[in-house]
Design a protein that fits this description.
The chain has helices at 6-27, 31-54. 9% of the residues are buried. With 64 residues, the protein is mainly alpha-helical.
Protein backbone atom coordinates (compact mmCIF):
# COMPACT_ATOMS: atom_id res chain seq x y z
CA UNK A 1 0.00 0.00 0.00
CA UNK A 2 1.31 3.44 -0.94
CA UNK A 3 1.56 5.89 1.99
CA UNK A 4 -0.63 8.97 1.81
CA UNK A 5 0.86 12.39 1.30
CA UNK A 6 0.73 14.57 4.45
CA UNK A 7 -1.80 16.97 2.90
CA UNK A 8 -4.13 14.05 2.15
CA UNK A 9 -3.81 12.83 5.73
CA UNK A 10 -4.69 16.32 7.03
CA UNK A 11 -7.68 16.52 4.70
CA UNK A 12 -8.93 13.13 5.90
CA UNK A 13 -8.53 14.16 9.55
CA UNK A 14 -10.52 17.36 8.91
CA UNK A 15 -13.20 15.31 7.15
CA UNK A 16 -13.55 13.08 10.22
CA UNK A 17 -13.72 16.18 12.45
CA UNK A 18 -16.46 17.74 10.28
CA UNK A 19 -18.53 14.55 10.43
CA UNK A 20 -18.14 14.37 14.20
CA UNK A 21 -19.35 17.96 14.51
CA UNK A 22 -22.24 17.26 12.14
CA UNK A 23 -23.36 14.38 14.40
CA UNK A 24 -23.14 16.59 17.48
CA UNK A 25 -25.26 19.26 15.80
CA UNK A 26 -27.86 16.66 14.84
CA UNK A 27 -28.18 15.67 18.48
CA UNK A 28 -29.10 19.26 19.41
CA UNK A 29 -31.40 19.60 16.39
CA UNK A 30 -29.17 22.17 14.64
CA UNK A 31 -30.05 20.67 11.28
CA UNK A 32 -28.81 23.49 9.03
CA UNK A 33 -25.34 23.43 10.58
CA UNK A 34 -25.27 19.62 10.52
CA UNK A 35 -26.16 19.62 6.81
CA UNK A 36 -23.49 22.21 6.04
CA UNK A 37 -20.79 20.27 7.92
CA UNK A 38 -21.82 17.00 6.28
CA UNK A 39 -21.63 18.64 2.84
CA UNK A 40 -18.16 19.99 3.64
CA UNK A 41 -17.04 16.52 4.72
CA UNK A 42 -18.28 14.97 1.47
CA UNK A 43 -16.51 17.61 -0.62
CA UNK A 44 -13.25 17.02 1.25
CA UNK A 45 -13.61 13.25 0.94
CA UNK A 46 -14.21 13.48 -2.81
CA UNK A 47 -11.26 15.84 -3.18
CA UNK A 48 -9.08 13.36 -1.31
CA UNK A 49 -10.26 10.47 -3.47
CA UNK A 50 -9.59 12.41 -6.65
CA UNK A 51 -6.09 13.27 -5.42
CA UNK A 52 -5.22 9.68 -4.52
CA UNK A 53 -6.54 8.35 -7.83
CA UNK A 54 -5.22 10.93 -10.28
CA UNK A 55 -2.41 12.58 -8.35
CA UNK A 56 -2.15 16.31 -7.68
CA UNK A 57 -4.59 18.41 -9.67
CA UNK A 58 -5.56 22.01 -9.89
CA UNK A 59 -6.19 23.62 -6.51
CA UNK A 60 -9.75 23.34 -5.22
CA UNK A 61 -11.59 25.13 -2.45
CA UNK A 62 -9.65 23.19 0.21
CA UNK A 63 -6.00 24.11 0.72
CA UNK A 64 -3.40 21.37 1.01
Amino acid sequence: MVPMRPEIERLLAQTDHDLENARKNLSIEAYEIAAFLAEQAVEKYLDRRRSTISGPTARTAWPS
